[in-house]
Design brief:
Radius of gyration: 21 Å
Shape: globular
Mean pLDDT: 96
Number of strands: 22
Low-confidence stretches: none
Structural class: alpha/beta
Strand order of the largest sheet: 20-21-1-22
Helix content: 25-40%
């Protein structure tokens, strides 16, 4: 169990956003279905290892597919494997076996796929997925919708995905539709969900992965609280929902400027605001840190699904903020933070959650004394070089 010790410091300078994990997952699967083509750049993170590992295992004809700790890999690849008629068992590590996959237990058996699972991992499938009408809830996880779209382009006949509830985290599905279109496969959005033709041919191509707004957010918030950070390699025309961090920081009163593919953020007079996180759940940990340094009340709502991530991120964030001396109240779908109070040094929990560790490493920059966070190695899930970039910008992070 690694511990990172954070000393008070200020981040200044320029950093290049790492390649988008979300876009890379989708491109790797499209490339696999195309039968060739490269996908780059890719970070050698655990989540990327999960997707490339499952794809390689399918190519070898393995019967067990280890998704490590990647929920995206798991929920994308279950229907994709079913579209190929594979008889396989999905496994995972860490908290992944505790994360639900129940939607597929309801959906897939109606379309010729036998599923054996108690609602969690391990999960075994057999049979070849057929086309038709798929009813799916939109407020459980957009990952189910992405998985179905990727798979249904690969089956015989046309299909419809009908959303039985409002789709949350829609930008992630928008990204799926965009990446699929890059590979020559088309999905039509409708009032009720999505229409997709079967037997579409994914094009072989060399795919360039765009910069990751989710990871850039940590450094942009560090700039907003008190540094001066420029992040390059970002696309303001991206379908990534987490580019909303630009508007979030502006709503808090931070100074942020956009120039081509560079985003600069530097300190302003931060004031509390209200955030609907239903489309940007991954940003909640770092938004909560920003709120702790903003004067007045911030309400974060619409984040119920955070309870089923690598940790219960609502509970994790609230617990750590309280240890730092922040005034925070947990709610069913988020939290209320009364910010602007001087925070104290503390020993924090990382909860084996990469976004918790990175978010509170940003908080530690602006606290007198030392902040310690355990499970520091969890950053390897998505951004292994985070602390290298952090220290290069002037941070003082000592990973033990």
């Amino acid at each position: 169990m690694g511990i990172v010790k954070i000393e008070n410091s200020i981040l200044n300078g320029t950093v290049t956003a790492p390649p988008s994990k979300s876009a890379a997952h989708r491109a790797l699967i499209c490339s696999f279905l195309a039968g060739g083509g490269s996908v780059s750049p890719i970070i050698n993170s655990k989540d990327m290892q999960a997707t490339t590992g499952v794809i390689d295992a399918l190519k070898r004809g393995d019967s067990t597919l280890n998704c490590i700790e990647s929920g995206s890999t798991l929920r994308f690849m279950i229907p994709v494997a079913a579209s190929l008629g594979k008889n396989v068992t999905f496994t995972g590590e860490g908290r992944l076996p505790e994360r639900p996959v129940g939607e597929y237990l309801e959906i897939l058996p109606k379309h010729n796929v036998k599923v054996e699972s108690n609602g969690f991992l391990p999960l075994s499938i057999s049979g070849k997925l057929t086309n038709g009408t798929y009813e799916a809830a939109g407020d459980v996880s957009s990952q189910y919708i992405t998985g179905l779209l990727l798979a249904l382009a690969n089956v015989d006949g046309d299909s419809a995905v009908i959303l039985t509830t409002k789709l949350q985290s829609k930008p992630y599905v928008d990204m799926t539709v965009k990446v699929m279109a890059d590979y020559g496969v088309y999905v039509k959005e409708t009032e009720f969900g999505y229409l997709i033709h079967g037997n579409q041919q994914f094009k072989k191509l060399d795919y360039t992965v765009e910069g990751d707004w989710s990871q850039a957010a940590f450094f942009l918030v560090a700039g907003a609280i008190g540094g001066d950070i420029t992040v390059n390699g970002l696309d303001m025309n991206s379908t990534q929902g987490d580019k909303e961090i630009v508007n979030v920081i502006r709503n808090f009163g931070g100074n942020i400027t956009v120039d081509d593919n560079e985003i600069r953020c530097f300190g302003g007079e931060l004031k509390g605001t209200e955030i609907d996180a239903s489309d940007i759940p991954d940003l909640v940990p770092i938004i909560a840190v920003l709120a702790a340094f903003a004067k007045g009340k911030t309400v974060i709502k619409g984040a119920e699904r955070l309870r089923y991530k690598e940790s219960d991120r609502i509970e994790s964030v609230v617990q750590n903020l309280k240890l730092l001396g922040a005034q925070v109240q947990e709610t069913t779908d988020g939290m209320i933070i009364n910010g602007g109070k001087k925070l104290n040094s503390a020993k924090l929990k990382g909860f084996n959650d990469h976004r918790i560790v990175m978010a509170f490493s940003v908080a530690g920059l602006y606290i007198d004394g030392t902040v310690e966070i355990d499970d520091a190695e969890s950053i390897n899930k998505s951004y292994p070089s985070f602390f290298e970039d952090y220290n290069r910008l002037g941070g003082k992070a000592d990973v033990l």
